[in-house]
Amino acid sequence: MSVSKKIIILFFCFFAYFIFVPTETTMAKEYYSTGTSNVVLVEKRGTGESYLNIDTIEAYIYNPPKYRLAANIFVYDTKARKIVFSNTIGFDYDIDQHTIYSVDLSTGIRKGPLNAKGDSVNRTSFKIAQVMWNKAYNMDWK
After folding, report:
1. What is the mean pLDDT of residues 76-86?
2. Taking the model in full, what pTM does it have?
3. Residue 23 carries which DSSP code?
4. DSSP letters of 70-137?
5. What CA–CA distance (Å, rounded) separates 68 from 105?
6. Regarding predicted confidence, which is higher, 111 or 142?
7. Is the pLDDT of residue 93 over 60?
8. Distance CA 24, CA 59 (A)
9. Per-residue pLDDT tens digits for 115-132
């Protein structure tokens, strides 16, 4: 086989890989960013973007004034161009006490209360909880 044929084959294989074989995380990012799903950007911090899939919001407890909601979230790293974290997270809301707690759904253990003035993880969880409440009940958390 001549050198020119080898170069042409190598050239074709190189470009075919990028055209026909996108990575799984690239496909996931495109799926979540094209509007084909109800995914909401909650926060950008550094190279990370936190998203909430509002299609997955479920009410585990509806006993006014106490509520428990859960939904799927994921964190996309824009620099690495991949999803670096995904999980189902839950929150307990108490309207009388004006508090939100993060909840381990498998054990029921609560952490909190969450607020907008805590550490970065606390603030992000609080923002996700607020958006989840807003999307589930169509009202702002106060």
Report:
1. 89
2. 0.72
3. -
4. EEEEEEEETTTTEEEEEEEEEEEEETTTTEEEEE-TTT--EE----TTS-HHHHHHHHHHHHHHHHHH
5. 10
6. 111
7. yes
8. 30
9. 888 788 888 899 999 999
**Spatial contact of 52 and 43, defined as CB atoms under 8 Å apart:** no
- Residue 42 token pair: 């909650």
Integer Cα distance of 88 and 102 in angstroms: 11
Measure the CA–CA gap between 44 and 4, rounded to whole angstroms: 48
| pLDDT score recorded for residue 24 | 43
Rounded Cα gap, residues 25 and 127, in angstroms: 25
Domain boundaries, the chain: 22-137
| Predicted local distance difference test score (pLDDT) of residue 45 | 85
For residue 24, the surrounding DSSP H or E stretch is helix 24-33
Closest-CA residue to 51 (of 127, 142, 133, 136): 127
pLDDT at residue 90 is higher than 70: yes
